[in-house]
Amino acid sequence: MLQIARILDDGKAVILASVTDPRNTRERLIKAAIRAIEKEGESGVRIRDICKATNTTAPSVYYFFGDRYGLIRAAQASRYRLPLATLQQDFAEAVYSCKSKAEFTKLVHQILEVIYSDKRKPIRSTRVNVLGNAQSDRLLAKEIASMHDSINKVAAEPIRYAQAKKWIDDDFNPQMFYSWLVGTLNGRVLIDLDSTHPESDDWDFIAKRAVCRLLGIDEPKPTKKPRRNRTTK
User: Fold this and answer.
1) Could you say which DSSP state residue 102 is in?
2) Is 121 exposed, middle or buried (0-12, 13-18, 19+ CB in 10 A)?
3) Is the Cβ–Cβ distance between 36 and 49 less than 8 Å?
């Protein structure tokens, strides 16, 4: 809420008017649409209900998003972007605080343990859900592609920093590395579909090994001994 005030001669402020910050209104509409999508799917996004939940009016939806589909598109893009942006920011801050290759390697191991963990199943599922919707929505697909390009550019900077420090190999494209890494996260959904998949630890072992070998750092020690394919005679 923005307030317009007038300063009197005695230094006191008198509130003349209060105006809702447009950015706040837009975010509230998006958050309400996200809640509706996660509860009922895209069909649950009804302008009347969204406006009631946010204490706004239909013209606000049309002003910010054009129509109902524009609101849905913005909500889906936000569902996809926020977890990635948060992860990227946390990773960057942690990388810049590292003082040695050993510290950086330890950080990567911790990050890998988190991003492939069962706790992040809902986040991975959400991303794949949004990508599924993007297959039939050209505008959403275009927005996600553009969003990924922006996130990749920002996420590449701490990788370049580590390369400059000689902590990791420098024979790969940092932007495409991050894009590929997100691809492995989305691919983990194939294992997540079976909540009790007996070989999920092996999938994680392979993914972590691939990341570490590409970076040129030591692999984390597996919590469980990985299975090996045994050929029976």
Assistant:
1) H
2) middle
3) yes
Other CB atoms within 10 A of residue 32 CB: 20
| Domains recognised in the chain with CATH numbers | 1-66 (1.10.10.60), 79-233 (1.10.357.10)
State pLDDT tens for residues 106-154: 999 999 999 999 899 999 999 999 999 999 999 999 999 999 999 999 9
3-state secondary structure of 17: strand
DSSP state of 222: P
Among 200, 232, 206, CA closest to 220:
206
Give the model's pLDDT for residue 57: 92
Nearest C-alpha neighbor of 91 from the set 77, 108, 79: 108
Tokens coding 77: 């893009």
> Pick from 177, 175, 182: which is nearest to 115 by CA?
182
For residue range 16-26, what is the model confidence (pLDDT) as tens digits?
A: 433 455 668 99
- What secondary structure letter does DSSP report for 219? P
Tens digit of each residue's pLDDT (9 = 90 or more) over 162-189: 999 999 999 999 999 999 999 999 999 9
What DSSP state is assigned to residue 220? P
Spatial neighbors of 129 by CB under 8 A, at least 6 apart, are: 79
